[in-house]
Specification:
The chain is of the alpha/beta class and 370 residues long. Strand 2 and strand 3 form a beta hairpin. Helix 13 packs across helix 14 and helix 13 crosses helix 16. The longest helix has 34 residues.
C-alpha cells in the first residue's frame, strides 16, 4: 500500500498521462526543437527512432514476463511489445534480478524504460519519472491476480518517449485492450485449491510420458513442456480418456484427425502424443506470419476449434477494421462473445488453462527434472 502522499502523486500523474494521450503529437512536435537545442539532456526517444529498437528492462514475475524457452510472454511483456509495434521498432526485452537494478539501468541510460513494481517514492528519489502501466486501471490487474503496482519508469518526464508511452497506455485503457490482455494472463484461471490435485496428477503421470513428450517435441522442434500442458488440458494425461463427442486418447484426437496424422490407435499414448504434436505443428505452420508468442495461442485455439473456425473469426475481426493477426483482438472476440457461444467459451478456457499449466510445469523443478 502507498502512503496518501504517494497515492496523490500517482493520481496526479494518471491525470497527466490522460491529457498526454490526447496531445502526444502536438507535444512531440513542440519538444523537438527544445531538445535539439538543449544538448545537455539525452532523450531516449532519439535513440529509439535512430536505432529502430526499444530496450525495456524488467524483473521477471507473473505480472511482467515469463520465459518460455526462446520465447517470452506475459502481461507486461505483451504491453511493451505492442508499444514497440506502435513505434514501428523492434523490442529488446531484458530481465534483471530486482527493481533496484532496473532503476539503475534507467539512470545510467542502459535501457529506454523500465517496467517495475518499485515504490513510487523510491522511483522519485532516483529522480526518475513513472506512471501506471495501465493508466490507473488497477481493477483489471487486481481482478486477474496481477500486481497493481506495475509502473513504467523513464529518465525524463519531458522526453517524447515518455509522452508517447503514456498516451499509448491510456489509449489501451480507453479501448479495453489492457483489460483484455490482463484477462488472458489471469493468474486465477485455475482455482488456488486445484493446484494440489494438479500437482499430484503431474507427479504420478508425467514420469510415464515425459520421454515421449521430449522425443516427439524434438522431432517437430516444439517445447515438450507445452505438449505436456496440452496433454494435461485434454485428458489429465490419461491415455484411455474418451469424451461425449468421440474424441479419445491422451491428446484427445478426433477419429478423422488421428487418421490424417497416421495414428492407428488413439489410446496408445506414444501414438497419441505423436499425432497431437504433428497436428499442433501443422497449426503453427498456418500462422507462421504471426510472431511468437501469439503464434502459439492462435495454434492452440485452432487445435481446439479447428482452423476453419479461427479463419471465420479473423474475417469478422478484419471487417471491424481491426488487425486479425493480433492476439488481443482474437482473444477479445472470443471473450466478448463467449456468453452466447459455447465453443468460444471453451476456447477461452482452453488456451488460458494451457498457458497456466505451461507456466506451472516450467517453473516446478521436480517436474522439469523428472
Amino acid at each position: 500500500m502507498h502512503s496518501s502522499s504517494t497515492s496523490g502523486a500517482r493520481l496526479s500523474l494518471n491525470s497527466l498521462t490522460s491529457s498526454f494521450s490526447l496531445k502526444i503529437l502536438a507535444f512531440s512536435t513542440l519538444l523537438m526543437p527544445f531538445h535539439s537545442i538543449n544538448a545537455s539532456k539525452s532523450y531516449q526517444y532519439d535513440s529509439v527512432v535512430n536505432d529502430k529498437q526499444l530496450t525495456v528492462v524488467s524483473v521477471e514475475n507473473s505480472t511482467t514476463v515469463f520465459k518460455d524457452g526462446s520465447h517470452l510472454h506475459g502481461f507486461g511483456y505483451d504491453l511493451a511489445r505492442n508499444y514497440a509495434n506502435s513505434l514501428n521498432v523492434k523490442l529488446i526485452f531484458k530481465t534483471v534480478p530486482d527493481n533496484a537494478t532496473a532503476l539503475k539501468w534507467i539512470s545510467q541510460g542502459k535501457a529506454n524504460f523500465a517496467m517495475t513494481t518499485a515504490n513510487v517514492s523510491t522511483i522519485e528519489k532516483k529522480q526518475l519519472t513513472s506512471f501506471s502501466a495501465t493508466c490507473g486501471d488497477l481493477s483489471s490487474l487486481q481482478q486477474n491476480g496481477l500486481n497493481t503496482n506495475l509502473n513504467w519508469v523513464f529518465k525524463h518526464a519531458d522526453d517524447p518517449l515518455t509522452q508517447t508511452a503514456s498516451g499509448f497506455v491510456c489509449k489501451g485503457k480507453q479501448s479495453g485492450s489492457i483489460r483484455q490482455l490482463a484477462s488472458f494472463y489471469n493468474q486465477n484461471v485455475v482455482k488456488e485449491g486445484s493446484w494440489g490435485t494438479i500437482q499430484r496428477d503431474l507427479n504420478q503421470r508425467m514420469p510415464i510420458y515425459k520421454a515421449s513428450f521430449k522425443n516427439t517435441a524434438a522431432k517437430y522442434d516444439l517445447d515438450w513442456h507445452l505438449l505436456a500442458a496440452i496433454g494435461y488440458q485434454e485428458s489429465y494425461l490419461k491415455p484411455n480418456s474418451v469424451s461425449a463427442t468421440g474424441v479419445r486418447g491422451l491428446m484427445m484426437l478426433t477419429n478423422s484427425t488421428a487418421k490424417a496424422m497416421g495414428v492407428s490407435n488413439r489410446t496408445d499414448p506414444t501414438q497419441s502424443i505423436e499425432g497431437g504434436a504433428k497436428y499442433y505443428d501443422q497449426m503453427l505452420s498456418r500462422y507462421k506470419h504471426i510472431p511468437y508468442p501469439d503464434r502459439n495461442w492462435y495454434a492452440l485455439v485452432a487445435y481446439n476449434m479447428g482452423p476453419g473456425a479461427v479463419n471465420q473469426i479473423q474475417n469478422r475481426i478484419k471487417a471491424q477494421g481491426k488487425n486479425p493477426n493480433n492476439w488481443v483482438n482474437l482473444y477479445s472476440y472470443l471473450d466478448n462473445n463467449k456468453a452466447s457461444n459455447g465453443r468460444y467459451r471453451q476456447a477461452v478456457q482452453y488456451v488460458t488453462r494451457i498457458r497456466a499449466y505451461l507456466e506451472h510445469i516450467k517453473s516446478t523443478p521436480q517436474l522439469v527434472n523428472i
